[in-house]
Amino acid sequence: MRSCFRVVSGDAMVSGRFRTGIFAGLLLGCIGLAAPSFAIEIFGFKFLEPEPPDAVEMIDPVRYTVSLRAGQDDGEIAKAVRAASTLIRDADRPASGRAGLLAHANGDYARIIDALYGMGYFGPRVSILIDGREAANLPLDAELTDAPRVVVDVAPGRLYRFGTVSLTGAPQGYDAAADGFVRGGVATSGIVRGTARKAVRLWQEQSHALAEVSDTSIVADHATATLDVALTVKAGPPVTYGPTTVLGTKAVDHAFVEYIANLPRGRPFHPDDVRNAQRRLVKLDTFRAVDIETPEELSPDGTLPVSIGVTSRKPRRFGFGATLSSVDGLGIEGFWLHRNLFRRAERLRFDGSVSGIGRSTDPTDYDYAASVSFLKPGVFTPETEFRLRFGAAEEKRPGFTSLSLETSGSFATNLSDNWSAETGLVLERSRIDDNFGRRRFSILTWLNVLTYEGRDVPLDAKEGYYLQASVDPFVVDNSSQTAVRATLEARTYRALDEDAKYVLAGRAKIGTVEGLSAASTPPQNLFYTGGGGSVRGFEYLANGVTVGGVTTGGQSLVELSGELRVDFDESLGGVAFVDAGHVGAGGFPDLSNSWKVGAGVGIRFNTGLGPLRIDVARALTKSAGDPNFALYIGLGQAF
């Protein structure tokens, strides 16, 4: 058995609260020097690195028209043929000469037949005509018209069902009939392959690393439209891991790579171990590519050796970005990162930002933030990392102005493929100017966060779920009284069609603060709504609880958002959305009034890192002082 994983990921510039906007490219003009060990990447485009080879221009492009005939069926069969045929999928792009067109056609025969086998049609007839002639019979130098007419003609034939089926050597307890491998069932190639893979997988989960399908017999009876299948599985001996070899890096300590991979000699083999090792090594962000291989034969001592090959990234990186809102102004951010400080993938990062540019001509009205953070992976366990951060910020929010210093230390760990948790302490000292006057706070918070990440692509999800719950007890000014701030956020995504061109996305968030009155709670621990990550159409965090004409934060929060996302093509999409938010004076919200609702539309440009987002929103529950409309620009979907 041979297992090989390869992950190649670019130096994406989005992490944590860092969001890149459309003005990021303008900042390149401010860069005057760079060392060879630096790299910068914006929207997936690399700078300060050697130029790539010139693109190869297509020679003799041939444009063609194509039509499909799918017998008596223009439903599922036609859909499967269209998905399998490169001639149909690429009809809007010219072929590379006559040879390229014929190569597409000749490859389509096998692709279409394989797709029909996957649906249970084992006697199909596939004909691909180019200018009325069968493509399989045409030489590469065949004369074609200037705009060839292509006809893909498919007759799927009869639907086949399983006749006699057998699975020899299956692990105990495996019922192949439950997976459709049963006499009389629809005989798809997917069921045959799936049955074989599952039998092998179940043996591997019992440490039989070399399990394989040793013999396969498939006989199609065209007279009765049945498929007789006999599979034989050879389990092989149970094995344990042998020595681990690390290749390809001198910068990262080899022993640390072995530790993070966590495939110790003598442990019984399990197929998930290799996948999890690959995931942990990629997460270090130190390697551009990771290959983990196990050989097809055991060592003389009967163990399974492991080979880890890695390709290192540049150790230092810096980047710039920007966000833009018509009501909140322009924000500019930058960072410098070292991702292998002490040869064990430790990350040191400096961040700085200025926001609110444009909402005033006075720089003292802008928001400023700076921080330095340190991350050490592999603390206690290969899945656990230690995070340390020091930060300072000055913020001008609609309800208050704050100047704060913050120190935090936490431990984060992966509990499973989807679940992660973080716990730690945060000490914040702040000076607040609000409707209660100038106040100073010392806040000690016990941070507790549990996250479920089940989205297919976090920055542009089309399927899946995301959940995050936080319960953060905190003490103010060394008080003996403990308060709690808790939030729960859920996001869900569902594609409405097979190609996921139409996607419904929803978000709901609730929050509460208990233990202190609103007047005694630091404003930054209360809830507000408004802005690009909350209720679009309003100023950033401008909506709270208004009493006697004075707006303050609330002790409860409810936010709801819904989007319909449409992909027009591979590079352009559109969104229609509605956001709603409610801030309550007490810990339990009164949902009968005080809702803030905004709606709008947006466009999305695919950048490779994620969609570039441009949203225009209008407040539907407009109050005095609210903007007529709001424009938001950033990277990634709104949620």
If you had to describe this structure to a student in words, what would you say it looks like?
This protein is mostly beta strands and 639 residues long. Among the domains are: 71-155, no CATH class; 161-234, Ubiquitin-like (UB roll) (Roll); 397-635, Beta Barrel (Porin), CATH 2.40.160.50. 11% of the residues lie in helices and 44% in strands. The protein has 6 helices and 32 strands. It has helices at residues 76-84, 86-89, 97-117, 189-204, 254-261, 271-283, and strands at 40-42, 45-47, 61-62, 65-69, 95-96, 125-130, 133-134, 149-155, 161-168, 212-221, 226-234, 241-247, 287-293, 304-312, 316-325, 329-338, 347-357, 367-377, 384-396, 401-414, 419-434, 437-453, 464-476, 482-495, 502-514, 545-547, 550-552, 556-567, 572-584, 595-606, 611-619, 630-635. The strands form 7 sheets. Strands 15-16-17-18-19-20-21-22-23-24-25-28-29-30-31-32 form a 16-stranded antiparallel β-barrel. A 4-stranded mixed β-sheet has the order 4-8-6-7, covered by helices on one side. Strands 9-11-10 form a 3-stranded mixed β-sheet, covered by helices on one side. Strand 21 and strand 22 form a beta hairpin. Helix 1 (76-84) packs across helix 3 (97-117). The longest helix has 21 residues, at 97-117. The two termini are 41 Å apart.
